[in-house]
Amino acid sequence: MTLEPPPEHPTDETLAYRRALGAFATGVCVVTADSPQGPLGLTINSFTSVSLEPRLLLWCIDERSERWPVFAAAERFAVHILPATDRETAARFARGVALLEPGEFERRLDGPPCLPEALARFECTVHDRIQMGDHMVVIGRVEAFSASDGDALTFWRGRYGSLGVDE
User: Fold this and answer.
1) How far apart are the first and last CA of the chain?
2) Which H or E element spans position 62?
3) R_g of the chain, CA atoms, integer Å
4) How far is CA 145 from each of CA 57, 114, 134, 166, rounded to the nearest angstrom?
5) What is the pLDDT of residue 159?
6) Fewer CB within 10 A of the terminal residue: the chain, N end or C end?
């Protein structure tokens, strides 16, 4: 599920369903990929590991997202698990300016654009795409990854929070 506004006039049942889904606390990630205008970011909370061998992960994008065309077509992308201190980045790529400026990203050879600060980062090529309801499930084959210590940014009941070793 992307962290974008719901439809303009959701029904009471749709709102109740969204509230029920919000009871599940998730980590917060930003996915990045190249677009014709430059590197682009998207905040998501629909991330999971699929397989250790081969290394596969998945995330989902809402087909109503203005960023759908780029991410639905991208062959390479990076998933960044955000540290607890990165609420501003999560908010920016959820609804704000989505294009990355020079100096805001790095890349490995011909890899996807990558945010320099992340609790963990996974650089992927698309393994499969599956259209499911109003979302596309993007399955990525992990080509490179990195991880560091720190507390994780979380999303629960419409609010950001954190989860760490000492909590």
Assistant:
1) 26
2) strand 56-62
3) 15
4) 12, 11, 29, 25
5) 86
6) C
71 has a pLDDT exceeding 90: yes
CB 151 within 8 A of CB 83: yes
Q: Are 61 and 2 in contact (CB under 8 A)?
A: yes
Is there a contact between 18 and 10 (Cβ–Cβ < 8 Å)?
A: yes
User: Token pair of 163, please?
Assistant: 């989860």
For the chain, list the domains and their CATH numbers: 12-162 (2.30.110.10)
Written as six digits, the tokens of 17 are: 């369903």
Are 142 and 109 contacting, i.e. CB atoms less than 8 angstroms apart?
A: no
Burial class from Cβ neighbours inside 10 Å (0-12, 13-18, 19+) for residue 158 reads exposed
Q: Is the Cα torsion angle 139, 141, 144, 146 positive or negative in sign?
A: positive
